[in-house]
Amino acid sequence: YMGKHSSHMRASLALLVLLAAAASATMERVCLASCNHDHSSVPAHWRHDVERPAAASETVLLSFALRNDQGAAALKAAVREISDPFSPRFRQFLTLDEAAAVLRASPAASAAVIRALKSAGIESAYVSATGDWVQARARVDAVAALFGEQCRPQAFVANERPIRILRSRCALTLPAALARFVDYVHGLTAFPIPSAVVASPSASAPHVTPQLLFAMYNISEPAAAGTNASQACAEFERETWSQPDLTEFEKKFRLETAAVKTVGDHGLGKTEANLDVQYITAMASGVPTTMWLAAGYSFNLVAWAQDVLATHPIPLVWSISYGEDLTTVDPAYAQQLDECFQTMAAMGISVLFASGDSGVWSRGASTSGAFQPTFPASLPHVTAVGATQMNSAGVEDSSTSWSGGGFSLAGYFDRETDAPWQVDAVAGYLNSTSVKLPPSNLYNGATGVAFPDVAALGVDFEVIMGLIPEPVSGTSCAAPTFAGVIAWINSHLLAAGKPPLGFLNPWLYKVAHPSSCLHDIVQGDNSNGNANGFEATVGFDPVTGLGTPNAFCLRESAFAVSPQ
Length: 564
Description:
By secondary structure, the chain is of the alpha/beta class. The strands form eight sheets. Strands 10, 11, 12, 13, 15, 17, 18 and 21 form an eight-stranded mixed sheet that branches. A four-stranded antiparallel sheet has the order 4-5-3-9, sandwiched between helices. Strand 11, helix 9 and strand 12 form a beta-alpha-beta unit. Helix 9 (271-283) runs parallel beside helix 14 and helix 10 runs parallel beside helix 11 (331-346).
């Protein structure tokens, strides 16, 4: 009897051990790719909101990147061929359905994520248009249920502006059964840097007007009419534009009335958005323009990209003048966002970012120690635009000292594999005997992706604010100027039955620059008043890139390499 009882006990113990092991496996949590990044400290510019802590019913927007390594590799290969002027697939762009066929994660992945979200009480979840992200708006208590109480979002306010956001200061983990489907979760840990526009009027150089830009950049005729050309500016942190100010701008400078569509809440005009809409519409007069006003104060580029990709038709050229310190985002997020820009590149969309207004250090970053490049201007699949200035005679002859530029950090991107089109140009700069390079320990010249790619004037733009002209400076001036040039070229390509330009960089480095279609800026540096920075020189430099546009020459270059 005792032996039989012992046998039953052993069997029961064995079963308990198996059940415990199974429960342990079920409860096991896996740290996501962002775990290696420090999320414990509160960044500069932000503090806890002790007066109004996060309520359980407040919500945050979450974006789950679904794992599809094979699709990501296929997308990168497709973009490489579609964007290479010497490839037989050059500018044979993908439709949204074709891009989704490459990127879409398995049905099991999206179903597992949505099921887990619903179990945590998150009902408003949906799969992105390209099938590789799940978006969800989640209550604070639901976020704690999904990621753990230690990740319950807290409220933070900006030190110098009335901006309040919700963020978690923890390493995000998911149950192992779910984590195998998810590469990254965005929306909880990254802090934006509140935006600012440089206002530094020059005492001697002429103010910049549309007519000056037309002459400077060789635009002697309007955009071609009756085409599908289009352009847009994305605005964040509740920036809005003013129609009365745009009307006054058009009247003052004798411009055609622009057709502008607004996506988002349209409020009182602010400097950044007014600058963008006034100068992008001037440079590509007659091209339909969208002002995309992102909701809330979060600089959430993933959510913006997913919303844009779900839009039809998508504007063909985008100018964005927002950015932050690359060190504030972890490599996994930067790589996932770059994949969003690769998707746009595959579909023929040109995305241009201002390179930043703090030289080799990002806005808000410490100016001691290693350089801190701007994000997302330092991503491989965007075109970064630096800033130049004129002398007292009105000649564009040098960079500004604050034009953002440099190299992406180690661990984020690799120049050889992620931006091969710039390898030779960057090597020419780093090996040049005509420039004095900063100490090599301050930047990742060995493997980093260099930026900016190009430049345009960025000092003393006449912008109408409250029906009154005011001078505005910054790479925020340069980005819509160069974007408008690209939209102008697109209009003429489309009028001739040619495809639009799409992702610009391989063409710029391999064809346009060798054809002398970019005015080389060889004076200035971007030390921004500090001890170190990069110097402008002949050819590419990480201050003004390849140079400033000759629109007519660029148009001829685009036609010369366009598919028949």
